């Protein structure tokens, strides 16, 4: 296997999971700032509070304090040899409520300084414009993207970033894991949390997110034609549990709706045929004008990125099964041929090669794997070392399969493993679910020095990058 000479090796984080400083320098609250911590030991997910209660711990408020420590972190990324660093901009650092007309200069200057620090080491920024960072005010007062005015707020925000950083950022992503908007009312994407929403409202809000993305693509290309603006999905690789035709058909239908739907709209620029029947069968009404259709066609993305952590199996009687598995976005049925992580996610390196081929054969645009990794418990030894051979093995097997996919003919241009530095979990707010090459001294209750240290995987990944994937 051989990786292209200009392959973008790096790592990925998100502002709400690493920056902290949630109310510093004019920043307003995002929806993530209202997420109280959950716990794996008690089996609880994160609690979303309409009002922040000081008696509880909200992990995003301090996170790993990368807001104040980004220079130290970037120096460590540079030591590993990063070519690219995927980060997100906190929307509420730029527009604290989301509906202002004038941006917050302190927030803009912060990212100016951060990009300058990256460029000092020759690291290319890959910027996610909205990574579960919708301003809380927009959700509370406008029902998020259910209100078409939010499209304009997002366009103003994105345009502000494009104009400010047109000479510092080349690679952009409009929304993180946009297909989260197809499940659970899509609070993280759509900003729906005030009440119970119908499925029609959920998909109408998601439609407005598509329009916002398209407007951003068009605006970005006008400001700098060299911009590369992509989409980002949580790809959930699915296999039929059996060769029973009902299981195969169910898998196809779920794959279409949860994986292909958003990609089809953002890459091809139109709603796919199969959603028409889904909308009819579920009495879903979405207002889509001719002007909307033209906008979606004009605002298609330049490349496709996705997260890949696991695969799952699908059965026709999925809801009634007692052999369910955990996972990102949603679970499925367990696969007896796969091992699982400490959090019950099924580890499937070959599935990544399968997925890369599946996506590329459908869209034939450049691809990036912008999240991939192993959430695990790490033990600090008496000498301070962290011997995470399990993480090294996970990455090694996945990188081998990426190389195989490239040899298959897939145009894969970059790889940014998730949580290159330990950060808080999006699902539970825990720190004990660690992904990073860099250890951060922080526990699930927010205690610790926040000191950074190198795991064994840090040195291994450094060698991988230096050898362009040849030394595994």
Q: What does this entry show, briefly?
A:
The chain contains 14 helices and 18 strands. Strand 11 and strand 12 form a beta hairpin.
Q: If you had to describe this structure to a student in words, what would you say it looks like?
A:
With 472 residues, this protein is an alpha/beta fold. It has a single domain, classed as Glycosidases (TIM Barrel, Alpha-Beta Barrel). Helices cover 38% and strands 15% of the residues. The strands form 6 sheets. Strands 1-4-5-6-7-9-15-16 form an 8-stranded parallel barrel, surrounded by 5 helices. A two-stranded antiparallel ribbon has the order 2-3. Helix 6 (149-164) packs parallel to helix 8 (199-223), helix 8 packs across helix 11 (290-298) and helix 12 runs parallel beside helix 13 (389-408). The chain starts with 7 loop residues before the first strand and ends in a 6-residue tail after the last helix.
- Average pLDDT number: 95
Provide the CATH superfamily: Glycosidases
Inertia-based shape: globular
Number of helices: 14
- What is the spatial order of strands in the main beta sheet? 1-4-5-6-7-9-15-16
Number of domain units: 1
Termini separation comes to 12 Å
Q: Major sheet, described briefly?
A: 8 strands, parallel, barrel
Helical content class: 25-40%
What name does the CATH topology carry?
TIM Barrel
What is the class in the CATH system? Alpha Beta
Give me the count of strands: 18
Beta strand %: 5-15%
Radius of gyration: 21 Å
SS class:
alpha/beta
**Low-confidence runs:** none
- The CATH architecture would be Alpha-Beta Barrel
């Amino acid at each position: 296997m051989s990786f292209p000479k200009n392959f973008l090796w790096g790592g990925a984080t998100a502002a709400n999971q690493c920056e902290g400083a949630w109310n510093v320098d004019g920043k307003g609250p995002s929806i993530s700032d209202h997420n109280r911590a959950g716990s794996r030991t008690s089996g609880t997910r994160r609690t979303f509070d309409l009002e922040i209660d000081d008696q509880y711990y909200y992990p995003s408020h301090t996170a790993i304090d990368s807001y104040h420590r980004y220079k130290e972190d970037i120096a460590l990324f540079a030591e590993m040899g990063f070519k690219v660093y995927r980060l997100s901009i906190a929307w509420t650092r730029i527009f604290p409520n989301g509906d202002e007309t004038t941006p917050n200069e302190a927030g803009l200057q912060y990212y100016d300084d951060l990009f300058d620090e990256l460029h000092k080491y020759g690291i290319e920024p890959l910027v996610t414009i909205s990574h579960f960072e919708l301003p809380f005010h927009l959700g509370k007062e406008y029902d998020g993207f259910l209100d078409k005015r939010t499209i304009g707020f997002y366009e103003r925000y994105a345009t502000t970033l494009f104009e400010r950083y047109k000479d510092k950022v080349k690679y952009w992503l409009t929304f993180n894991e946009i297909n989260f908007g197809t499940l659970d009312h899509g609070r993280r994407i759509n900003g729906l949390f005030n009440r119970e929403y119908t499925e029609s409202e959920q998909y109408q809000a998601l439609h407005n997110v598509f329009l916002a993305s398209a407007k951003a693509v068009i605006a970005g290309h006008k400001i700098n034609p060299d911009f590369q603006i992509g989409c980002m999905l949580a790809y959930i690789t699915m296999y039929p549990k059996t060769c029973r035709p009902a299981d195969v058909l169910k898998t196809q239908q779920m794959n279409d709706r949860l994986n292909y739907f958003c990609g089809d709209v953002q890459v091809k620029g139109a709603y796919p045929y199969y959603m028409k029947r889904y909308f009819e069968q579920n009495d879903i009404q979405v207002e889509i004008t001719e002007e909307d259709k033209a906008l979606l066609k004009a605002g298609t993305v330049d490349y496709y990125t996705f997260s890949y952590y696991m695969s799952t199996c699908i059965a026709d009687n999925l809801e009634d099964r007692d052999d369910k598995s955990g996972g990102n976005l949603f679970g499925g049925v367990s696969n007896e041929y796969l091992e699982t992580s400490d959090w019950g996610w099924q580890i499937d390196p070959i599935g990544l090669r399968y997925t890369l081929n599946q996506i590329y054969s459908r869209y034939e645009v450049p691809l990036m794997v912008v999240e991939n990794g192993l959430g695990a418990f790490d033990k600090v030894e008496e000498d301070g070392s962290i011997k995470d051979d399990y993480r090294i093995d996970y990455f090694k097997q996945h990188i081998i399969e990426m190389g195989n996919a490239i040899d298959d003919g897939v145009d894969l241009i970059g790889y940014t493993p998730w949580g290159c530095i330990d950060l808080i979990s999006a699902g539970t707010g825990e720190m004990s679910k660690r992904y990073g090459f860099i250890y951060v001294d922080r526990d699930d209750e927010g205690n610790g020095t926040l000191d950074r240290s190198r795991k064994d995987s840090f040195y291994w990944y450094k060698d991988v990058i230096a050898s362009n994937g040849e030394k595994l």
